[in-house]
Recover the amino acids of this structure.
């Protein structure tokens, strides 16, 4: 349990000497177990990263996320170089690393969650093409929008959706462009793949990830149920 | 576990000297964890409040509901004034407070649950407009109706649905009008948002919330499956 | 954990002196918690009963099923008379009692589970009318049929569905007629309400309940997805 | 917890003297509990088998999979003969045994999972007939494909689907033919029944099973939602 921590969210940039490594590593494991229960990281998919000052912590790649332990976590510096690897030397850094780094660099994020939720994957299929490689989902008039920083009930949340690529690292450029083009978003989805959601700290990253997932679930079920414009502004 | 308590529901108004604060606070935390597992309070949404005599206990706002601890709970008097805040002074009272208070005042409730269940959010889209700002869902011939005080299988449960507002506290007037207009209801839903369900105590609030959620799930799936009038009186 | 017991299923009629009360009572509580997690007994709905020789154990009525304790269980004799009530005298015997007794009497059952599963409730809406008050669901060519005693993959499982009534006890006659009319069934569903599933012991009652629920889920989703006759013999 | 083991996957053929029986048996029980929570082995369905060198471990048949204990596991030699039975002599070897053996023999698998997931059962109904007794599902452009050995995002995963039979052992021939006809697959589905998924060890078997299940869930929901070819290459 990390209640004390959560209730007094860390400032984004404590000096690294105050960083409590163990707590951060355990928090990543706890979040991974929670995401597995939610069905967002099945089959080794997804990932979690947390920043403390100049140090970035990342879950390893290609392993069962619900079973990682604190000693399996990578540490990187703010440039994205590995400064400390896991005890188990067979573990590999995730290909998502440059994507996580983009949120840290461009948005001063404190944590990033990468989910493979079925709700999100299905929602991306409904995204409207804006330009080559980029689409958008527009979501409005749902209370859960209030859970996203800077958004109210009547606002339109524009969730950018970038096209997927054969290699995850090849998403970096389009994800960065989407982050820059949509300055109010806390998330970028990837078509037929999943989503990256960030926040000023791991609590906000997790709760915003839950809100975005809820919104995607409602969007998909509205389409499934053929909800009309009379029933909801997002109807057909 | 609070088995002993649950099996002998409190009378609505014990003198405040008999109130066991700790037990009430732990019960709120337990219910919040249960609601999180059910998917009703994701993304910091939703809330729980319990009354003991003249003292009202409320979960804090804007935090992960599955992780609150007994010392995070607010205490209010029957007028809605905070009489004791949480240890962690950064916590804020929920904007739902006046809505919870309405159920205590107008219905002599012993507990109120506020859920953001996807079943309820989708169901509200099917509600029939009655007057500006107010709609209604009519639910009948489902066994789970018997779980709602004063309702039988053949009765029509009228669930009022009020329009959502930009600020949660601005719902107060329409929620109070709905409570007064529908004297038999134990719940008021909010369009595209969620629901408030109350009961004479926390056990009844929780079990009625489960019944209403079940009814909303069935209603939505009946629409999704295009269930006809020959198959069920609520069919299309 | 009751592993030892499950692996060596009790004979249906041990002399009552060999009955281990405590174990039976704990098994009922364990099954109730499991059913709550499955979403089959929300809102105080549903119930569980186990027979040991001439003694019948039943969960109480109108309480949160996931929280009952061993001392909350009723004991009845084979005629259905209460021989031992729960410690907590405010608890009431379930209105399902005569329905549970029918399975004991007419089928020599060792245990009965009453579920309010949404899958079953929706499936009952698709049942074909046979005569006033009685309908039937025909399910075939699904592997899970093998989990029902006396059924193979190519068999047609005929699940009788009786009309619901205002009072649960008023279901007794139609349920008994359905049991007699469908001698191969291990379950009778109740329209818009739920299902009664029995077995020679509690393990078979639970596993058959899971199989029937799975079959109902598939049936409903096949309708929802408009599965055709070319895709499956149960298609439309 | 078997973290240490998972992070250093066993080579496929250790000499049998290095086999730690207890750990393998506990891993099978742990996987079974996990599969029950996922809804893949309800009603005694499904199964799990792990190989260590020349020794093959299998969960017993016809029992609640979530409750088996290490002493309930069968041991077989590489020819499929039982070399050590469970303590409880009433337990029976699963009829799936020859199917599990086929994956060991033809693919040098280290573990096999048999699931009765509703997602898979529904997906098999959409499989395209190739020849008598054999169909195929083609799945492409979904990130979760990367979780299957030898598959990338743009590849087409061909999942063979064999017709179901009255007796499980009668599936052996068609399953072997499917394995040989589709050399790149890590799974064979059985129409209206479920799926067999294998991997070089139990971690890969489980994670590939999760990926295949996810892909089947998306396929079914795409059909349900009438996703078009403009929205996704697998659309209609």
């Amino acid at each position: 349990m990390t209640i004390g921590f959560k209730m007094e969210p860390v400032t984004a940039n404590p000096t690294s000497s105050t960083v409590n490594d163990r707590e951060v590593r355990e928090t990543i494991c706890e979040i991974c177990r929670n995401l597995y229960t939610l069905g967002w990281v099945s089959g080794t998919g997804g990932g979690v990263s947390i920043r403390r000052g100049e140090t970035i912590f990342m879950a390893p790649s290609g392993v069962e996320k619900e079973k990682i332990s604190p000693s399996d976590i990578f540490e990187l510096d703010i440039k994205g170089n590995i400064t400390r690897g896991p005890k188990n030397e067979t573990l590999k850094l995730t290909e998502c690393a440059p994507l996580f780094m983009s949120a840290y660099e461009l948005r001063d994020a404190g944590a990033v969650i990468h989910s493979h939720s079925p709700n999100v994957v299905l929602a991306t299929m409904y995204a409207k093409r804006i330009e080559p490689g980029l689409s958008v989902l527009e979501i409005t008039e749902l209370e859960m929008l209030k859970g996203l920083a800077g958004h109210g009930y009547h606002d339109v949340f524009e969730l950018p959706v970038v096209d997927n690529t054969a290699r995850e690292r090849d998403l970096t450029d389009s994800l960065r462009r989407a982050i820059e083009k949509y300055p109010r978003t806390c998330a970028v989805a990837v078509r037929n793949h999943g989503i990256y959601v960030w926040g000023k700290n791991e609590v906000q990253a997790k709760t915003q990830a839950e809100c975005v997932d809820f919104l995607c679930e409602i969007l998909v079920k509205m389409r499934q149920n053929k909800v009309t414009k009379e029933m909801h502004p997002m109807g057909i």
User: Anything to note?
Assistant: The helical segments of chain D are 3-7, 21-38, 97-107, 118-124, 172-181, 202-224. Chains D and B do not touch (no CB pair under 8 Å). The longest helix of chain D spans residues 202-224.
